[in-house]
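Supplementary notes (optional reading)

For those who missed the lab, this is the record we used. Protein: phosphomevalonate kinase. Length: 371 residues.
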Amino acid sequence: MTSGRTVVRSAPGKLFVAGEYAVVEPGTPAILVAVDREITVTVSGSEGADVVISSDLGPRAVRWQWREGVLHVQDEEDEEGARGALAHVVSAVETVAGLLAERGLPVPTLDIGVSSRLHEDGRKFGLGSSGAVTVATVDAVSAFCGVELSLDARFRLALIANARIDPKGSGGDLAASTWGGWIAYQGPDRAFVLDLVRREGVEEALRAPWPGFAVRRLPPPNGLSLEVGWTGNPASTTSLVSGLHRRTWRGTDSHRAFVETSTDLVRAAIAALEAGDGQALLHQVRRARQELARLDEEVGLGIFTTELTALCEAAEGVGGAAKPSGAGGGDCGIALLDTGAAHDISHVRQRWAAAGVLPLLVRPTSEGIEE
């Protein structure tokens, strides 16, 4: 069935517009946007191994073999670091294989190649590379195996794969990479999802309601340009979110107030987008920055770096709004600026460059994975 076939699928990266940190609580909303840089996964038949995975971020192809539904590195010299570097690809393959097994279908040999435009010289931009590679791998492997899936089912498989690695992740990056464009997103209860898979299987998890989960597309902002600045310092979202989980702050009155305020400003920002009210959207993005700053001051996560603070101040200096995108601590910041004020946009980019922030030439994209 798959002999001689090659399947190529891509998934875009993402940026958080509002709702970071609070979105890890099931049912709490956030706004994200997909961007026109992507990860591409190519799948064909393999020779000499059950699964071969190669990536432009790694020095060599790694061979894997199946043992009771789990992939293991075939060559000992590749063992060190291979599972960590390729964890999201491996988990995506294992999750699709689990679905195939439940349907009584064999898993063909797979040669998987990964190519990323979400990195530069091996350093990630903070555009959701882990989520994009998971979505693209699920899409490519399932298509190669002849399994037709809706966008919702592809997202669900990707979330199961990611939750098996890090159940604290919200899944917002996966949703942006799946649906594309501007989206409103609420994450499901990942513990519930993983328990459902354990009890009922992957197939049932694709059909059953997921408490808290919701996603819908939003119109792009009216009269505003999304500008993106990269600090040049990669940050670990997993580490920052895990740091928040380890602190006694979670479950306190302050934590509940943060989630409530984030929910309020995100809902107001959604309403502004749907009404085409650019000024109202700017106000809510400024509120989002203030709430992240309050969180950072209270908990001491290191969300705001010198570069991210300079990025925000430059944009607000010309009447725009700006904030870290995602977990902060490095990676990217975003700014919303008047589309018609070319001089202001140029001025902000110049100030960013002087502060060590690289303006990234990325734009929102309405393209997710293929329908």
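If you only remember one thing from this example: The mean pLDDT is 91.
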